[in-house]
Amino acid sequence: MFELNIDPESLKPKLPNRSDLKPYPVSCYLEYRGHEDAVTSVSVEASGQRIASGVDDILDSLGQDVLLLNTGRGNEEIQKMTKELLSVEMPVPDDSGKTASSVSWLQDDKLEGIRLRHSKKIIRVYDLVKEGKLVRKLETGLREVSSIAVHPSLCVNCTLIYLGCTVYAGDHIIVGSREGKLCWFNMDLSSKPYKTLKLHQKDINNVCFHRSYPLFATCSDDCTAYVFHGMVYSDLNQNPLIVPLEILQGHSSTNGRGIMDCKFHPRQPWLFTAGADSVVRLYCH
After folding, report:
1. What CA–CA distances, in Å, run from 208 to 50, 138, 167, 190?
2. Which SUPFAM superfamilies match (predicted)?
3. Domain ranges in the chain?
């Protein structure tokens, strides 16, 4: 018999040096104060010149319902198309032709939108253009999904919906959970996670991708935000490259809550975080 002497370290994937992956946010540059209560959401204007923050989510779930609302943006033709999409007359059937028992689509005349009522915490992909046809179900293996983000390479014909979020569906998505875990899905290859990472000690409250830089971030009630390099390749045979970059700290815990929301600047490698300590922080490179 031949005995092979293999160094276990040689079997580990070789990750690039973090300094070669710059720029990415590393330290707090500004603090925005003014709120007296927990800041639950932050949103960055498309040009990156202004931000909005509030104690209520800008567009959120209500209990187990998901609300699809018209933002009022766009010209007359876009508004007409939007209103047509946000109009349902009956429950939408699933892919078997039967009305889905775990989710129902209801017209909300008061809010002029659609209310999706979930009875189960799962991820479903729908094509709204094709009358809300169910495209795919994703198996997270998580106890409770808390947040979701879609890679910027978008498929504009589909909409992905889960308990508490509605977004356009791309090939890759990340999902945060109440147990501090993150799942990365490559929907072209599998309905199961490509990778599951245990990151935070408490609930993950939000996850987000940067629009142009290969960055994504998570934020949690443990008062930290994690920043990752996440490169997606056009070659379908090449797996995404995921590299942990930085753990951002500075928020203080209030009533057991930490960082409630995080959003990237649309143009710069900067990250905004909203805290239960009533502070919004800007982290820069």
Report:
1. 18, 19, 12, 21
2. WD40 repeat-like (SSF50978)
3. 23-58+120-284
Its CATH architecture, for the domain 23-58+120-284, is 7 Propeller (2.130)
Q: Give the whole-angstrom CA distance, residue 281 versus residue 104.
A: 38
Structure-model confidence comparison of residues 272 and 70, the more confident one: 272
Q: What pLDDT does residue 11 have?
A: 60
Cβ pair 282, 226 in contact under 8 A: no
Q: What's the pLDDT at 159?
A: 44
Selected residue with higher pLDDT from 76 and 272: 272
Collapsing DSSP to helix, strand or coil, 125 comes out as strand
| 132 token code pair | 């809300």
φ, ψ of residue 144 in degrees (nearest 5):
-155, 120
Nearest CA-CA partner of 232 in 150, 141, 114, 166: 150
Q: Which residue has the tokens 């129902």?
A: 104
Q: Above 80 in pLDDT, residue 148?
A: yes
